[in-house]
Amino acid sequence: MSRLDKSNSSNGSGLYVPLPDDNIGSKLLRSMGWSGGGLGLKSQGIEEPITVNQELVKRAGLGMCGEGSTILFRKQANELIKQYCSEDSEHDLIFSTDFSKEERKIMHLIAHKYNLKTTSIGKNEARHLVVSKKVFIWDVAKKLLASGGSNERYDLI
Q: PANTHER family from the entry (predicted)?
């Protein structure tokens, strides 16, 4: 158990517990003339210390959104990709560059589950995901012959 585990479990709920008045920081401030209240020339500063909302997630670190947001994202991505599969569109599904590497990875896995083709295009912050349906050459040729030899994506030569 780490030191963070112990501090979160001290009151049973992991909530913020105020420090007692005999702590080292309080003693130091009082020795410099602080009588309580806000800091600053006109006592305009904050009176309560800034608290950290710590949630210990195995191998995640501070600022990690947690498992709930990943589950929600996975569910929403699954619904979107499932809807794309059920449509009779030949267009690609192009995702924004706003998604993180982990989110793109989740979408890749979901798309592969539905037998879709995925490609990540670009580098670093400009990287985005393109999901498309797998097409067979004979199906494309039949559609092109039926539509007069070309469509918005292919030309028959």
A: G PATCH DOMAIN CONTAINING PROTEIN 2
State the average pLDDT over residues 113-135.
Answer: 88
Task: Determine the Cα–Cα distance for residues 145 and 156; give it in Å rounded to an integer.
Answer: 8
Q: How confident is the model at residue 55 (pLDDT cuts 50, 70, 90)?
A: low
CA pseudo-torsion sign 10, 12, 16, 19: negative
Q: For residue 124, what pLDDT is reported?
A: 85
CA distances from 42 to 14, 28, 29, 73 (A): 35, 20, 16, 47
Nearest partner of 129 among 153, 96, 90, 106, judged by Cα: 96
Q: Are 41 and 75 part of one and the same domain?
A: no
Phi and psi at residue 121, to the nearest 5°: -120, 140
Question: What domain range includes position 140?
Answer: 67-146
Q: Are 143 and 113 contacting, i.e. CB atoms less than 8 angstroms apart?
A: no
- Decide if 151 is inside a domain: no
Give me the sheet containing 93-94, strands edge to edge: 93-94, 128-133, 116-121
Model's pTM, two decimal places? Answer: 0.50
